[in-house]
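Intended use. Records like the one below are meant for learning the mapping from a protein sequence to its folded structure. Do not use them to infer anything beyond what is encoded.
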Amino acid sequence: MCQRVLPHHLLQHKKMMQPRSRMISLMRLQRQPLTIHSCLLLRIISLCLVGIWLIWVVLSPTEPIFTSTDTSDFHQIYNAVNTAANQEVYILQQANIAGWTSSLRREYAYLLAQQNNYRPLLALFNSDISLIESDEPFLKMLAYQQMKQGNLAQARHLWEQLLQLAPNDEEAFYQLALLAIPDDITQAMNYLVSLNESSSELGMQADQLLVALQQNDLLTLGLLLSEFEEWQTAQRVLTALISVEPMHWQAYLYRSYVRDQQGENGLSDLEIALGLADNPALPLYFLGIHWRTIDENLEAAVAAFELAAKLDPQNASIAIELAITYQEMGHDDLAATWYDAALRLEPHKVEWHRLRAAFYAERDVEVVDIRPIEQSLVLFPNDAHLLTSLGYAYYQLGDYVMARTYLVQAVELDPNSARTQYYYAVAMEQFGDLSAAIGGYWAAYELRVSSPNTYTILAERALQRLRVLS
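Structure written out for the chain above:
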């Protein structure tokens, strides 16, 4: 059986939220501090006034203030009411008086999403209220959240609701296919066939998955899903393979990696693979990844990788992991040596060029080097990741004009990269274009649900610093 090495993936960090409360200053009465009772009295009075205003709105013979396309008045009310708790009181009071409207539901969904309050948001979309097109982002947010929590049946229902609103939504077809694997292969293939004519990244991934499903090749299917970072589905597939072939050491090996990526400890699977494999080079490679990423034992990781490299010196994946580990240890000279070794073994693998380019761009400013990045761009002139690295390298060197030039190109090529959007925003802020900077930070931040990583966290902090996000 041929040995297949899983392409390297950088770890993605979970989004960390740091909510910041808003303070309300009140005039002191007779130069005495307000008591708890007086604060409660003021709160009750304010809510009563809001209730009186709502009754006036409902009974007024004039046209309704809120329509399905105009929500500006809501935000004025929110600013007056001040707190999220009072915003929710206001919305629920209006729903109780006038019933749920599309605009009111959308405002409530927006408020709950801002609070990461998924339970009432889920209940809202599980109700019998008819959905509209503007509900799509909330349905996707909830679907991904339910998938993370392992509530696959609920996630499937949400994606099916989305398809009712948007019958051609590629993301919904793709995710429904993943949810059907491996229990209902026929249904999964039907969903993937719907993406046959798509030229998007999802369409290309669907084509590869479809071939593996048609051939009933569970190992290839598990590897593809791992490459696409579809960890939950990959684990289900590899577990199914182990149930059929309990001595399949590669299935244990790759499942150990998949479990590690999901926060589980895959060491037990890795130990089984080491015991079953004839050649330990590949298990040692994965052992090095485990030591570095899970146990954060860089010395042990280097030892495992170096032994694997001796057993399999032509394996570029092992070389790249040695480069990354030495980089994390601060041994830049050794890291550069192993990056170059990986590129000598596989000179046309763009992933290795991207990792080396990021290494040279994101080092301390005194050792930033644009030459290796430019060499890679000769081979891949339209690669957004490489252009991002070159742009940020120029930013590090203080050449903000060149930085902006390359980062604008990168954003145009790949607007869905949090790294690209973040570095673009950093450069635009330095350039004095605050509007473009906020747009870039926000674009990176919005990717936190589907693709949380270091750059979505950095973007969130930047928005908080600029007081765009609380």
